[in-house]
Every structure is written in structure tokens, then in C-alpha cells.
Amino acid sequence: MAEIRVENLRKEFSGFTAVEDSTFTVEDGEFFVMLGPSGCGKTTTLRMIAGLELPTSGRILLGGEDVTMKRARERDIAFVFQLFALYPHMNVRRNIGFPLLAQGVARSEIRARVEEVAKLLRIDHILDRPVSGLAGGDRQRVALGRAIVRRPMCFLMDEPLGTLDAEFRDLMVHELRELHNRIGATTVYVTHDQMEAMSMADKIAVMNHGIIEQFGSPREIYERPRTMYVADFMGSPPMNFLRLHSGLQKGDASIRMGEADITVPQLREDVAPSDLMLGVRPEHVRLDNASRLRGEVLGAEYLGTTQIVVVETGEGTVKARIPASITVNAGETVGLALNASHLSLFDKASGRAIETALYEGGAHG
Ligand code: ATP
């Protein structure tokens, strides 16, 4: 088990930059998730850590050792691919034990280690079955078993649940995290699925066009997004963005939004409210007829215990997640109250969050 350190990692493919100046540390035993849309550079980063792709520049350290120029097989890692090809003519036992056989480990030890891993993965009852008839979840468990049996320093996983149907995915997300808690090996996991990332990760890096937009715990990333991109990528529905108008006097600690006053930290002299966007997650918006921030209900999406109500205000469209028991009708005018301790402010031009201390005071004045 080991720490993974990536320093100023960069990868160009004939002039196209796939990964740009990435720096991060995955601590020993952490479950780290690289998250982002297709083409953002996740797989390229993972392949460089694995030694399957040479960086254009930068360094990779595994357990403190610089492995940047080492080949994949000289790095003590296990790579779990999305379409992990099992040997179809071998049974489960021989599939899991194969890496040890290839390393020349004694048969008695292979037997013991395969059985230990199969117990860990709860597939010890199918050890002698052919892999050809196995269901998707069991196939993934065999693939994981084959990676674990070598006891590598760390695991790299590239969308390992990508081919499973939704029901199995949920099960495997839970299982993978539980397995990680038991064996505690440093893991780098690539996915485009924010729910997978949120449920499994100790730390997440959200990537966009080869750049890490934010690195942090799931909670930090969800509650304190550093960019509008992250705020929009995380959450379903994503964060609402509202325009801010004038009404702010230099040195004021509040911003007027429609008829509502929102308390904010002191802005820099050169920043005007019209340069900013206010971000608020749907669960931090509630209906409040006393509020002076008002708008027309466009519709509501019923979700069982909650509903997402869409309201058109003068400052932008707002989605509010409110209890399903509240009756709301399209066309009616409602007041909206924002939870003042869960607001974000972004610079419109750069999309970056304005560092905010916790907001004090009410969101409707
Ligand atoms: P996906 O989930 O679709 O795999 P990703 O975030 O993992 O996306 P990468 O596979 O790392 O993205 O690709 C990043 C960018 O680099 C993409 O635009 C891709 O087309 C490009 N790229 C990746 N490998 C190569 C290569 N060998 N030659 C040229 N371009 C490449």
C-alpha cells in the first residue's frame, strides 16, 4: 500500500493537450475518484499512473519512489479495466489464480490465496464454476479477485462498472467501497458518474478539458464548489445560478437580488454585483410567501418524497427541492427563500468562486 503523488503531469497527443499540469496526492489507503465527462483526460491520467502511457512532462511517485520512466510491469499496481477479459476456458479459481501462476508462485500458496480472496469477495461458493455462465456482478468480482490476489501497492480502476445494468451497479458500488474498507489499498477510480464518485470516494478530482477544476472530499466539492463548472456538474438537479443586480454600495455587506437582500462578505473594490452569479442548490431553496424574491411556477417534477419545483424569477430560473406534500400549481406566483448559510458566489467571467466565509444573515430582507 502506498501514497500516489502526481506532480505537474502533462500529456500532449500531437499538439492536443489531453492532461494539463495536474498535481495531486492520493494518500496511503485512500479511495480517490477522478470524475468528469467523456474526453476530459481521466483515462489518460490513469494510464500514465499505470505506466501504460508516458507523460509529456511531470513526475509520478508511488510510495515515494519516482516511477515516471518505469514500465507498467515494473510498477506494483493492479489495473482493473471496464471490459476485463476473463479467460473463458478457465474456471473462477484458475482465473483468479492466473497472475500468481504467471509469477511462479507455489501451487499450495496459490490455492490458499485464491480461497482467501474468494472469501473476501464472497464468491468462494462458485470457485469451481466456469466463468462463461456467470452473471455481470460475479464476473466483476472475479476480475477484482484477479487484481487483489497479487496484493499490489495500489489499484487503478477505469469505469469498472460501466457495463453493468443499474441494479448491479448500485450493488457493486456498495461492495467496492466495503471491500476497500476491508483491504484499505490505495485506489484510483475513474468514472463520469457523480453518484458513484460521491458514494465511494474519500477524495474526488473533478476534471474538465484536461484540468483539475477541484480536488477535495465529496462534501467539500458538493457544498463549496470552487467553480461554476463543478457546481453545475455535481448534483441532480445541479446548482441554480442567479443574476445579481446593482444596489450594492461600496463597502456594503449585502447584495440586493430583486427585492431580497443577501448578505455577502465584503467585495473587492473593483468587483460589481453585476460581475457575479449567486449559486444555490435546490435543497437550499424553499417556498416562503413572506420573501420578496418572487417568481412564477413553471412546473413541478414529482419524485415521491420530494418534488422539484421550477420557478422563473427576474434573476433566472430556480429549481427548488421541496417536500412532495406541498401543493404547487403551474402559473401561480410564489416567494422563494434561500438558505443563507449555503450560498456560493461566482465571478461570471472566470467562473471561479469568490472565497466566501460563511454567510451571515437572512436571504430575504
Ligand atoms: P472517456 O471516459 O471517454 O475515456 P476520458 O476523460 O477518460 O474520457 P481520455 O480518454 O483521457 O478522456 O482522453 C482525453 C482526450 O485525449 C480525448 O480528447 C481523447 O480523444 C484524447 N486522446 C486520448 N488518447 C489519445 C491518443 N492515444 N491519441 C490522441 N488523442 C488521444
Notes on the structure:
This protein is an alpha+beta fold. It has 2 domains: 4-225, Rossmann fold, CATH 3.40.50; 229-357, Nucleic acid-binding proteins (OB fold (Dihydrolipoamide Acetyltransferase, E2P)), CATH 2.40.50. The protein is 23% helix and 32% strand. It has a 6-stranded mixed sheet with strand order 6-7-8-3-9-10, with helices on both faces. A 5-stranded antiparallel sheet has the order 15-19-16-17-18, with no helix packed on it. A 4-stranded antiparallel sheet has the order 2-1-4-5, with helices on one face. Strand 1 and strand 2 form a beta hairpin. Helix 2 runs parallel beside helix 4 (136-148). The termini are far apart. Mean pLDDT is 88; it is low at 357-365.
Strand order of the largest sheet: 6-7-8-3-9-10
Low-pLDDT segments: 357-365
List cofactors, ions and other ligands: adenosine-5'-triphosphate
CATH architecture of the largest domain: 3-Layer(aba) Sandwich
Percent of residues in helices comes to 10-25%
- Please count the helical segments: 8
**Gyration radius, rounded:** 25 Å
Number of strands: 20
The first-level CATH class of the largest domain is given as Alpha Beta
Query: How widely separated are the two ends?
Result: 54 Å
Number of domains: 2
* Major beta-sheet overview: 6 strands, mixed
The chain-level structural class is alpha+beta
What descriptive keywords fit this protein?
2 domains, 8 helices, 5-stranded antiparallel beta sheet, 6-stranded mixed beta sheet, alpha+beta, binds adenosine-5'-triphosphate
Brief overview, please?
The chain has 365 residues and is an alpha+beta fold. The chain has helices at residues 42-50, 92-102, 107-120, 136-148, 166-183, 194-200, 218-223, 228-233, and strands at residues 4-13, 16-26, 31-35, 57-62, 65-66, 77-80, 154-158, 186-191, 203-208, 211-216, 240-243, 254-257, 260-263, 276-280, 285-287, 294-302, 306-313, 316-323, 333-338, 343-347. A hairpin with a 2-residue loop joins strand 4 (57-62) and strand 5 (65-66).
